[in-house]
Design a protein that fits this description.
The structure is a homooctamer of 239-residue chains. Chain A is an alpha/beta fold. Chain A contains 9 helices and 9 strands. In chain A, 38% of the residues lie in helices and 18% in strands. In chain A, the strands form 2 sheets. Chain A has a 5-stranded parallel beta sheet with strand order 6-5-7-8-9, sandwiched between helices. The first copy, chain A, has a 4-stranded mixed beta sheet with strand order 1-2-4-3, sandwiched between helices. In chain A, helix 5 runs parallel beside helix 9 (217-235). Chain A is globular. At the G-H interface, helix 5, strand 6 and helix 6 of G face helix 1 of H.
């Protein structure tokens, strides 16, 4: 509690125990924070947990991350979703064993699919991706989908789509694994900021699908990783 | 122009010439008219053009139509869309030659698909329908679709869907005939009055589709019939 | 494909194979069908699969179900969600082993929670329910929640809430099982048809939750049952 | 399927067969792609089909197109819609014979009308345009409209309008060719991003019109070209 | 101010002076009041001003009005808008001299057009009506419109339209009198409760129009009557 | 927690301690409950706290309340908001001393104003009401407002308004007591279910006002009573 | 009609006769046009009518206007609405005699109020403005309002307000001249782009007001000027 | 009243008496004003009241404030909300005695919480803040909340939250002081500009809360300060 205007130290209360409590690490969403705030919180995570995950990193922050953590931590940079993982060498993600498949309708859906993939990998899942197989050319879908189901034997699928949002419904009508629909803000005109895709997924006539909010790749990864890892734990006799 | 409060005769100006001018007959949408108004307008159409088409007929009006036109005109009654055609025996629709295919995602979409079918038939088209082949079980679609394209060789497709509205996009990605998307008010929760279906169709990533408003079966039939009949006229060397 | 106006037999193409293909049985949502249509489809499911599940059954249909199937099948009637299960005695749901917890914020959320519970039970899950523990009196929540997590050891939670939709976020911040948010149409004024609850769940700041559409108890049950049963199969060495 | 973060080659699956399968070429919508992605996909189209069509080209991409394809392909540049066609000299669009009329309410609607025109021409249609004849001065409409109908004898009309969106309804009430309504994002205040225009067109009381989404000139061109070319094929005895 | 729960006498404060202060009489909108409340307020207006105007009168109230005021006041009943005027024989509306033209796009727009006409007449205007001349058949418009402008020489036009709401814009582009757009709740699907009509009118590209809310016939009549009567007063040298 | 479908006893967890914990009694909102559920919960409240408050009571429930509690408890019935208070004679609300003023713009806003008044009285406040003083005739406002401020010396004002929702802003610009805006669902056309009133209050340019949701009279009463009673406690040296 | 991509000369069809036909001059809204397009159209208006009016002029265009028309025409520049009038010295607006009052709630509403004032002056009206008298401090309103009504004796009032949009309703409840409500995009949060103000005005409970769209100062000026000038003509015996 | 285009002096009518009349000082919201306008109004407030409060100060204005008032007034600068207070040394805020607690769900909600804190301090309240204790980790809430209630004994709480907006409901279910919900524009996807948070708060199932608009920190501070100071006055025997 502060009697005066707070400094950053007082204002942020990072949840270092989330990974333990929830099985999902906290992600620093940098787009609404100042460079200063993000750097400070990243530093505190790195100290407390050996890792800091940042998403939606603006270019200025990227530069600061590269400079200021050089020598202290390894930086993994993902250009498509503009995400970063800072890691002490001895802080590798556990091999939790979950198997997650991630599919996109178009190439424009990739930034959020990659966010989901990132989080799942950081939760210790194996992640398998198939991109650009939307309903305007469904013939491109069958092969890779069968591979995911029969060879990889995924525990859960994340399906990202913008525009008409039809792909998750089409897939959910075909498979017997749970599907997480990830609507993206790809589109134009009415409903084009992802609303059409989200509504279409919410209205799906195919059972076995639930959705996260538009562009919420992190959220899709969190629940997909949680499901997959619990399945893995059950496979390994853990629950 | 009326200096006093108008009677029905003054208030309605039926457009008897629409069929000639537009190639599309006028339909009396009964749901917002009193029984009195609908009966009066139907009578005037019957006199002027030998036919009256009524849609969304409430039960009271149905009874009146059956009683009061008995002996004067044949009544064709369509129970699913609650539509009626009154016709003098010598007023058959011309055989205009257009070939229209109408597909629905579910059985609940039938009332509006039947409205579209009715109007196309009254415009002299051949109409072929395939119902309940939505994306929750796409395996039901391929056979009938191929028949429509290769045997019937339809000029245009009307595809009706509520809920996720995904079927028209899926079909439009597969065929080379123009597709008219007909969203229906079948659904629940957010976007469930047909908005999700309409928006998903407006956002389609498959080219070659245009849409009409939610539940506007008459409108879908009008443009589909117009397209099909003009193609038929071209086949017959008429344009 | 039909050249004339279809009868019901032609119009509906029930998906008898869905349980096998998807692991989720098809549910006949009766509220948009005529009594005639629902009876016909129920009869065909009963014949093909030994069971028919109906939701949102209007009173007239309830009467018909009770009368016409008497002697042929057992009727299980759930008054709160107005749902019915018709079953041949030898057609018991398999004991699939999934463990599903269902929680509601208020008593008014019960119809949809019960829909979810029904579907999960028909998929062979064990279902455990806790009702009326919303955020206006959070002290009522802790005990039952702990029981679900530590004694029952649920595989997944469905959390239903209308109005502010806050309960799923609160729970999702506390537990390490996947949470399916089920917004309900309980509320008043702006956002009161479930939109506020849905949006709040879509915006959750707690990771590990995905949502279904407003009042979509069947959909929540489908994905929860799918997740739980796959976990059970993994427990039993099946995947 | 990719086990690691994908390169662009893996991520995009261009649909080279679309022109053959659908009768509509694929258009590279550049506004949501990086310059790198657009250049790569354009190159692959040019190789596979002898042509690449790009719309909504940002200035940086325009420069790259001009430089990097110089000598390899002819560049046609349309400044109003900022669209480009790259073409091998031996890859001329076929003369498919469809006749398309395109009308706008105002000069501000031109970018999307030109997108539609571009796609129709690339599909081998003859395109005839009439601009700035909206309902604020309807006297400007009659002459050009009559010319389109009686001299050019168009197969289909695309009518673009923003603001009140009234022009397509007015035209559709007068003509007997199918009308594709193209709402544009021209307007101000409530409904001013094209929603008023789209809704007004969806609510048209004139039969024989269907619509595409706001600013979807490419989509309007696709269905108009498809309709016109099939009419031409019928004229030539082809279907 | 009331210390206890109020009776109706205390609760309503009718504005008897509005006609004098504003030039517009108060109208008792009955649809949200109990029969008791409406009767009480009507009685008080009749006593205070010699007249009571009621709109949207439910059937029960109509019966009460007919019975209980018999002998005390003349009842003028308008069936289309379900409106009533109670009047002492010596309380005729003044001949204020304003000239108002009222036009509708369809017959379904009549209830609200008649509300506007009623209020204008009660304000002492001459009212001239033209119904069912919408844009689906514009040829029906020219004759009556010219009569209104050149023979009647109206001071102001009220133009009512539902669905596409295009007629007021078309008319406003042609005439040099002020136009009041009156959107009506006639329509279907998206925007079909009058929103499309209202938005289209708000976006009009023709100058010289302002609008009232959907179905607000009373409001359209009030401002039209006010404008017309002030013009009349100016004609008579009164302002 | 219930292993089977719950009875009502299991399903509802009334919050008997809310008055003590929160200073606000729980209200049984009957409109979404069955008569059975409401009766059961009312009985349990009466037993536990000596009082039960019910709002939005449907006619069937009213009859049951009158019959079944006769002799056991006093029934206070408020016809305008259809609310009821059941009370043991020895269970009078404490005289908490808060002073609440409640103002409405029109008579149609009374049901929700009366809900607020009811709750405040049950919290032990003195309640003073002024009805039908909206901005269409502001001269009716000054006198009663001054009385509330200077004679009654209210601690807080609840101002209810539908339609334009302007009255709370006008009042909030004039007074120095906190104002709770209570938007009501009185209106027509766009924004007419209270959205216009709510949005206008949320956008108020007069400081010192907060709002509750549309028609939430109970909510307005709760916060107003809480504020007023804490002020009274401070007056009496209690905090 | 153009067979090829149009030049600007072909694309724009300025309506030089609008002033004569409608009594309202055409305004070149520059914000959606290129500098080139605006300059060309301005030049053509100047030649045809001796005057060009431009609104929402971007800085680049301002510079061009100042340079290129220097010596040929007088430039009147209004900094607040960024509007310009180019005029040949012999092309003065007629003294049409209408009297228009323009009032704003805040200083932020001035750009659109000034747009309205500009158009009225160009139509030959006398314009009188009163700014920053909103409902947060109503005491600032009475004096200036009385002056407008009794000294200036305005024919019509334009009242601009953003945020709560309450001022036009308050004024319309007090005066007997027609009021044009002009909602502005001043606000924040929900409804803050002018929607709250527009909806509140559409829902006004004070009779005698109509509205234009958000920020449509030109539209408000057009109808106000039209009304005022017709009143002036009537005063002068002209109609 | 101005006959010509107004200068800034004429256009703004600052409400210097608001603090006296309302108990709330006027705040200059700079984001919609030019630097010139803001400087002028600030200067006039400083002269008239000894203080000027500015919020949402753009960088250019900040520089001007620092330069031009140097030596004349003390400048207090709050970097997080970009707010400023200019003050003559002898113009300290009175110690009004109100006690306000301000809580945020996340660090991103701080700018608006700080706005509220600023205004309360300028009204003479004691302000106590607790940041970043949202529902994703409720364990962080209990300690500080108890301190606010039992040690500080706050009169009122402001609770700011974006995203799911759940925190104010959770707190309001636990405390017996009035809660002002302050939704913030922190979020993503559907409902992510604060609409989800606002709607969830409007739908709260916990009694004793009212809300202000999204990001309206000033408005939340105004009503909270008003409530707290009146409580303090009552404590001191002042009312």
């Amino acid at each position: 509690m502060n009697w005066n205007s707070p400094t950053i130290h007082d204002a942020a209360r990072p949840d270092f125990g989330r990974q333990t409590r929830k099985g999902v690490p906290e992600v620093i969403i940098a787009e609404r924070k100042t460079v200063e705030q993000s750097m400070e919180i990243a530093k505190r995570f790195l100290e407390a947990t050996g890792r800091a995950i940042l998403s939606r990193v603006p270019p200025e922050l990227e530069a600061h991350l590269r400079e200021e953590f050089a020598g202290q931590a390894d930086l993994e940079w993902l250009p498509v979703p503009r995400a970063a993982v800072l890691r002490h060498p001895d802080a590798l993600p556990p091999d939790a064993g979950g198997r997650v498949g991630i599919i996109t309708a178009g190439t424009s859906d990739m930034p959020w699919a990659e966010e989901a993939a990132l989080l799942c990998r950081e939760m210790g899942c194996q992640v398998h991706t198939v991109y650009d197989v939307g309903v305007a050319g469904l013939h491109r879908l069958w092969g890779p989908l069968q591979q995911l189901l029969e060879e990889v034997r995924v525990d859960v699928l994340v399906v990202a789509a913008g525009m008409d949002g039809a792909l998750p419904s089409v897939i959910s009508g075909l498979v017997d694994v749970p599907v997480i629909g990830l609507p993206t803000s790809v589109g134009y005109g009415m409903g084009g900021k992802g609303e059409a895709a989200l509504l279409s997924m919410l209205q799906t006539c195919a059972p076995g699908m639930a959705v996260v909010n538009i562009d919420n790749g992190i959220g899709a990864g969190a629940i997909a990783g949680l499901i997959a890892n619990r399945m893995a734990a059950n496979r390994q006799g853990g629950s």
